[in-house]
Amino acid sequence: MSIFGFRRGQARKPPRGGKATPDLGWDLHAHLLPGVDDGVETMDDALEAIRALQSLGYRGSGLTPHIYKGLYPNTRATREPALASVRDALA
């Protein structure tokens, strides 16, 4: 899953090249879906974290929510609404 950098339907690979901070083009381990795991808790937290990443030169983020039975029993059905909400808030 990606949260910023690509719109729905575009390729999911991180872009090559560019002038972002060297070696910081993509955050490949992020917990930016509010309330899904031990990452950000609220939408405001998510947006603040995303803006902070962007200010450092990041162009995108690969989301890696925890999926642990009994602790974070996440499935596509639990993750997709959170992802859609963050995308809508960023738009």
Provide the fold topology.
Blueprint: E1 26-30, H1 43-55, E2 60-63, H2 76-90
Parallel strand pairs: 1-2
Explain this structure to me?
31% of the residues lie in helices and 10% in strands. It has 2 helices and 2 strands. The chain has a two-stranded parallel ribbon. Strand 1, helix 1 and strand 2 form a beta-alpha-beta unit. The two termini are 17 Å apart.
Low-pLDDT windows of residues: 6-12
* N to C succession of SSEs: EHEH
Overall geometry comes to: globular
Q: How would you classify the helix and strand content by structural class?
A: alpha+beta
Largest sheet data: 2 strands, parallel
Q: Report the count of strand segments.
A: 2
Number of helices: 2
